[in-house]
Amino acid sequence: MTIGTRINEAKYNVFRWRYELSIPKKLTLALGVAILTGLLAQLRFYLPWSPVPLTGQTFGALFAGIALGTWWGGISMALYAGLGAAGVPWFQGWQGGFAYLAGPTGGYIIGFIFAALFLGYLTDKFVRARSFFAMFGLMLFANFILIYGPGLLQLNLWLTNVKGEPTAFSQLLTMGAVPFIAGDITKAVFAALIARGVTPKKAYAKEQDGDKWAKWRLP
Description:
- By secondary structure, the protein is mostly helical.
- The chain has helices spanning 3-20, 23-40, 57-68, 72-86, 98-101, 106-125, 132-161, 169-176, 181-198; strands at 44-45, 54-55.
- The protein has a single domain (3-203), classed as Orthogonal Bundle (Arp2/3 complex 21 kDa subunit ARPC3), CATH 1.10.1760.
């Protein structure tokens, strides 16, 4: 057996194992990824013109969907948001509490749940989604639509209702989106490379296209 064959077999066994785990064990894994996201949140860089810092959390949300699959990626991010709102100090700056989740960056954290659910579903249901280019495109959609959407919405509500500073859409983008685009694309590239490297390229569960991969394989 060649090294490549052994690696592919190991990837297949790992993903099939996590797919077949009992609910308590899946919940434990989900909590582990939530903790990882909390640690990544401490990698932060503040911008003088924005209340939204640049953090590593986005990578955690993208990774959650790939690592945990359907439902459980989203559950891990729901644990991150819910336990953080309950007081666990793992939001950026080792903060916690509902007030933080209701603040200017809370919408992005809610978006993590949607992004992880989206990527987890596609990872488990479609072998084709596990190629680099497919996963990179899906991650860009998850990041710029599913995370930025609720993030910008809550930021706008916070600026208007809490700060009393109604903001034009262009200003909102300058504060909550544009400065982070390059970094988020970079994180998506690394996450897609990891996904391409660790996910098996054959069906391990009930993939809808498990018998078609060889006919339209992508890098």
